[in-house]
Amino acid sequence: MGFDEVTPSSPAVQVTVKDDCKSLILSNEQLTTLMKDLDKSIRDGLNKETNASSTVKCYVTYVQDLPNGTERGKFLALDLGGTNFRILLIELGDENYFHMDFETFKVPSQIQTGKGTELFDHIAKCLAEFVNKYNLDNKKALPLGFTFSFPLRQVGLTKGFLNSWTKGFNCSGVVGKDVVKLLTNAIKKRKDVKIDVCGILNDTTGTLMSCAWNTPNTKIGLIVGTGCNACYVEKVENVELFDGDKIKPHVIVNTEWGAFGDDGKLDAIRTKYDQEIDEDSLNPRKQRFEKMISGMYMGEIVRLAIVDLANQNKLFEGRLSEQMKTKGAFVTSFVSNIESDTVDYKNTQKILSEMGINDSSMVDCANIRYICECVSSRSAHLVSAGLAVIMNKMNEKSITIGVDGSVYRFHPYFQKLILEKTRQLTRADIKFDLVLSDDGSGRGAALVAAVTVRDELPLVKNEEIAK
Fold first, then answer.
1. What is the pLDDT of residues 337-357, one digit of tens each?
2. Which residues belong to any copy of the Hexokinase C-terminal domain (predicted)?
3. Strands 59-60, 250-254: pairing kind
4. pLDDT score at 456
5. 401 to 154, 236, 421: CA distances (angstroms)
6. Percentages (nearest 5) of helix, strand, coil residues in the chain
7. What is the mean predicted confidence (pLDDT) over 144-155?
8. What span, in angstroms and rounded, lies between the C-alpha atoms of 317 and 357?
9. Its pTM surpasses 0.90
10. Is 32 helix (H, G, I), strand (E, B) or coil?
11. At CA 176, angle to CA 175 and CA 181, rounded to 5?
12. DSSP calls for 316-329
């Protein structure tokens, strides 16, 4: 795909459809303008005087040490970032010994929008079930790393206040509260499990930590899944709000760049579809950058474009099913499946049939694929602009970016799109690569706990760990 355009996979794409999709294609000039604005927002977020007015808050994580290979023992991790959450048990030993067990638990919809105490009581109950299932020695408190993938203002490694809910959550009584304390209180209330929360982090920090265990050069963590965010290793001297150990030279900064543009900086490139999604969301006028990128919204952007074009008689001869008119019915996995399709468009026709449209033509299918390509390419190019801003700012000659998230993991071309565009936007003397994280946010949380206590633990042999 060219720098300033999306090339349709099929010549059958109608000129009128291409014209309607132009607003979804970002030019070199538009991305460069965005990068200047994002760079300023990040610098403002790092500055004590301008942090309050910056949309990009650059939260201090208080994580200053990366894994160095000497971590030993058993560690729990709690990974909360969406409708499902995971509890993990990780065992580390000599010669890179690594073993992981985990269970996935659901957050029922009524809890996602209910009382905060109910959410943390539910999590504590699941933690107790997990500890019991794996027969963990609970005579002394088990160290736990807590991945909490929502905007968080941290004032210490084990103290973080929720700034706002995202990703469909809206539990009452949690915004502005210390979520570690809420979790600890819920655990203590049960009186059947002892857990020591050693650190709280978000999924980007977890991804960075997880990749750093295998690739010490990892300096950026990126998530492109239900949400989108990035963190990076910053010099302590550049983080004015940091009041931790200033003898150590670095600290991980969680940008929370999903809120970039909430002040209007993205208005010039936001389409009518973006505006409709924002206005109709649980958090209108917030997380506007994320809403143009992430998996929670990508399928809906495509659906709105399909409905718009069909209403103009440019798709399906103007016919639309009730399902296609239904908010949220066109899921983001459809985008990946359609773009993975071959020339016969069997996947596309099957998906359209699931959406109640059974008489789509080959031209319709080509047009639908083109819409998907425009939306996913824009998403990847926005991520690329963000990564380029961070790397240009860091100005290190070699950087590994740890990446996780369903969109990055499952979309057939997303990694390629990001690599190409980021290369074009980053200074030529900076070398970088993307590494897919393996169970990033969960394993990373356990590694934060492991790094926190590693100097307190005696070296443990593999045979002892296995007992």
1. 999 998 889 999 999 999 999
2. 219-451
3. antiparallel
4. 59
5. 23, 20, 15
6. 45, 20, 40
7. 90
8. 11
9. no
10. helix
11. 95
12. GGG---TTTTSTT-
Contact 324, 307 (CB under 8 A): yes
Sign of the Cα pseudo-torsion (132, 136, 137, 139, in order): negative
Using CB atoms within 10 Å of the CB of residue 402, give its burial: 0 to 12 exposed, 13 to 18 middle, 19+ buried: buried
Question: Which residue's structure tokens are 């979520």?
Answer: 179
Encoded tokens for 152: 């968080």
Round to whole Å and give the CA distance between 227 and 336: 16
- Which DSSP category does 61 fall into? -
C-alpha separations of 74 from 137, 189, 443, 455 in Å: 10, 24, 12, 14
Active site (catalytic) residues: 167, 203
Q: pLDDT per residue over 105-124, tens digit each?
A: 999 999 999 999 999 999 99
Looking at the chain, the whole-number percentage of residues with pLDDT higher than 70 is 96
The distance of Cα 348 from the centroid of its chain, to the nearest Å, equals 27
3-state secondary structure labels for all residues of 150-162: CCEEEEECCEEEE
Residue 457 in tokens? 């633990």
Positive or negative, the CA dihedral 244, 158, 442, 56 is: negative
Alpha-carbon distance of 67 to 443, in angstroms, equals: 12
Residue 272's CB is within 10 A of a number of other CB atoms, namely 11
Q: How far is CA 306 from CA 12, 39, 273, 278, in A?
A: 17, 34, 10, 18
The Cβ of residue 255 has, within 10 Å, a number of other Cβ atoms equal to: 26
- Determine the Cα–Cα distance for residues 27 and 228; give it in Å rounded to an integer: 21
Say if residue 330's pLDDT is above 90: yes
Residue type, 180: V
**Cα–Cα distance measured from residue 299 to residue 336, given in angstroms and rounded to the nearest whole number:** 10
Per-residue buried b or exposed e for 364-378, using 16+ beta carbons within 10 Å of the residue's own CB = bbbbbbbbbbbbbbb
Give the tens place of pLDDT for each residue, 85-110.
Answer: 999 999 988 877 889 999 999 999 99
Average pLDDT, the chain: 92
Amino acid at 296: M
User: Three-class SS of residue 235?
Assistant: strand
Residue 208 phi, psi dihedral angles, 5° rounding:
-60, -50
- Give how far Cα 347 sits from Cα of 65, 300, 326, 336, Å: 46, 18, 21, 10
**333, two tokens:** 């996995």
Instruction: Give CA–CA dist 299/376, Å, rounded.
Output: 9
Rounded CA gap, 145 and 150, in Å? 15
The two tokens of residue 315 are: 């798709």
E strands present in 94-185? 97-106, 142-148, 152-156, 159-162
